[in-house]
Each structure stands twice: as C-alpha cells, then as structure tokens.
Amino acid sequence: MKTAIQIFTSEIFGEIRTCQVNNQIMFVAKDVATALGYTNTPKAIRDHIDDDDKLTERFVLSGQVRSVIIINESGLYALILSSKLPQAKAFKHWVTSEVLPQIRQTGGYIPTRAADGRDLSAVEILHRADAIVGNTLRMLNEPAEDTLTATQVAKTFNMTTYDFNAILRDMGIQYRRDGHWNISDDLADRNLTRLRTHVSYSLKGQKKVKVYMTWTLDGVRFLNSKLGYPNF
Description:
It comes from Xylanibacter ruminicola. The chain has 232 residues and is an alpha+beta fold.
C-alpha cells in the first residue's frame, strides 16, 4: 500500500518528498541526493544504495504521471554516510530530529501544499488533519516500549553503536551469535535485558520479523556502574 507524496521543506535543503509504502517511510532519492550536494544524483543513487533499499514507483507530479525512485531509511543513511560534504551532518540532524519523528508520531504531517505545488484548500487541510489525528489516537492506544535499544543507550555515553557493543563484548557483558547480541549467561537472570520484536514489510510486501536485545532500566543502571554515568 502506497500513500500520496508529502513534502517537507527546509530553508537550507529545499524540499524533500516522502511517502509510505507498506508502512515504511520512503524518500524521493533525487531530493535526498540533491540536498546532500551530489552533483550526479543518478550515479549517487546507483552507486551507494542497494537494490533492496530502493524502489521505482509512479506518482502524479505537476499533473503528470512520473516514475520516481524512492528509498527507505537504510538507503537514506547510505547516501548520508557516503557524502563527503559538510552539509551531510546537518541534513542528518534535520531528518532525524524533525522529519522522521513527525511522521512516526503523527503518521504524517499537515501540509498546506499538494505535491503538484498548488495550495490546498481549508477543507483539504482539515481532511488531512482528521486522518492524522485518527492515526495518532490509534498509536497512543498501543503499548509503549519500556526498554532502550543499544543505539539509544550508546548515545547517552557519546558512543557509536558499534563501539558500544564492542566494549560490552570485550567486558564479557554480551556476546554475538548468529548475527544477534545476547546477554552473557551469568547475567541472564538479572533482568538487565529484554527481547523486542519488530515486524516490518519489504518493498515487495514480504513480512520480516526481527528479534533483538534491548536494555531495561535495571540494565541501564548496571551499565552506568560499569561504564560510568553517561553524558546527558
């Protein structure tokens, strides 16, 4: 299932068009590549983004049906990490602090312009607002997670996720098996971690179930005692 194009605007980076496909947030690849300063956007998309992370979809833009390459979050980060330009860091901050949270928290945002550039009428804006409010209420009724991912905990210590996991491995706190991190056997009964399940769908509609380890409040306190209090 594909949603209509929505537009986020930045004075620095211009317009970034987004949509959702099978409940995954997608970005128009050309917009992202342009914002990151790639001079040859088709080459950047071809060289840096895996085929599994991009998809060609048809949208009505400027009154015409056009084929557009869209990318998922993995493709987005691939372009960011491959960019050598100084605006890459600022672009990542804008996307992660404004664009993605707004889509995730409200199911979208309330634009005043359509994808074809025309101003939306008050009625159209209200209809979109009603849809977003309904989705927000649904999300508020879902149970909240009470654990933190390794990425979230690592940030409190000003570490990358890779370094964080490597340090815990070297300290004997966790080990990696079959591509997954696991708490050490001698710590398994202390309620330091909890498995979380994430269900997603590929761009072809195939269901993917990912089970991964997260840290409880007791686990974070334990890490504080081992690593020193984090830098909040």
